[in-house]
Structure formats: structure tokens, C-alpha cells
């Protein structure tokens, strides 16, 4: 009786995949990219009224840089309050520069507005101006 129990309990697993597993594998093969390829990682970053330099020097931004490339420089752009308006300018440290709502910035200040996007390489920053 004990030998029969061992043979029934500790047998090799079935080598045939279940129908559900095969269907899931076929579904994943038809997916053009990995399902998580377009997931967005976010981080909250507060800039004081005195301003800040943004880039890999900011831990919250550095954690979003998956590849060790120069797309995001240590000191990529600067944000400051100029004449009562928050503005951004590029520091010229990265080849791709700083992009504000699809427009490449230079060293001149560009005003920020609520909801605008700042791109530093592959990192996108959504601006939320709080009173």
C-alpha cells in the first residue's frame, strides 16, 4: 500500500501543456511588443521657488534612466522663477538638448505652463504648477 501511495503522489509531471497555456503562448506571440513596453514610470519632483538644476544629479530622475547613456546629462537643464514666472533653459550638456512641448530649447529662458512637457532624452517631465 505504501509503494502505491508513493507512485501516485510523486509521479513525474505531465509533459503536455494545457490548452489554456497553449492559447496564452499563442496570444503572446501575436503581441507586437511586450505588454509592458508602454508602461510609464513616474516620479514626483518638487522644485523650490529658488529653482533647480535637473538631470541625472537628481536621484528621482536618475532612477528613471534605465540605460547608461548620455541622453540625460548630470546637469541637463535649469528651472527657475524669472520675474514671477517659472522658466526652463537648456544647459548644453547633452546632445539631444532639452525639449519643451516638442520645441528644442536654447540657453534663453522659456516660460513653463501647467501641463507642459519637458523632455530630457527619454525622460519626460510633466509640469504641474502649484500656487
From TrEMBL:
Organism (species): Noctiluca scintillans
Alphabetized Pfam families for the sequence: FHA
Lineage, opening ranks: Eukaryota, Sar, Alveolata, Dinophyceae, Noctilucales
Protein name: FHA domain-containing protein
Stored SUPFAM superfamilies: SMAD/FHA domain
Domain FHA: 52-105
InterPro entries tied to this protein: FHA_dom, SMAD_FHA_dom_sf
Stored Gene3D superfamilies: 2.60.200.20
Amino acid at each position: 500500500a505504501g509503494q502505491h501511495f508513493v507512485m501516485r503522489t510523486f509521479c513525474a509531471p505531465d509533459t503536455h501543456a494545457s490548452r489554456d497555456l497553449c492559447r496564452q503562448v499563442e496570444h503572446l506571440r501575436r503581441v507586437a511588443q511586450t505588454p509592458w513596453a508602454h508602461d510609464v514610470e513616474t516620479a514626483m519632483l518638487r522644485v523650490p521657488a529658488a529653482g533647480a538644476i535637473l538631470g541625472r544629479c537628481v536621484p528621482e530622475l536618475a532612477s528613471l534612466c534605465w540605460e547608461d547613456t548620455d541622453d540625460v546629462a548630470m546637469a541637463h537643464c535649469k528651472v527657475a522663477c524669472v520675474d514671477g514666472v517659472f522658466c526652463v533653459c537648456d544647459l548644453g550638456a547633452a546632445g539631444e538638448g532639452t525639449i519643451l512641448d516638442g520645441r528644442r530649447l536654447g540657453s534663453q529662458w522659456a516660460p513653463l505652463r501647467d501641463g507642459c512637457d519637458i523632455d530630457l532624452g527619454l525622460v519626460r517631465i510633466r509640469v504641474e504648477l502649484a500656487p
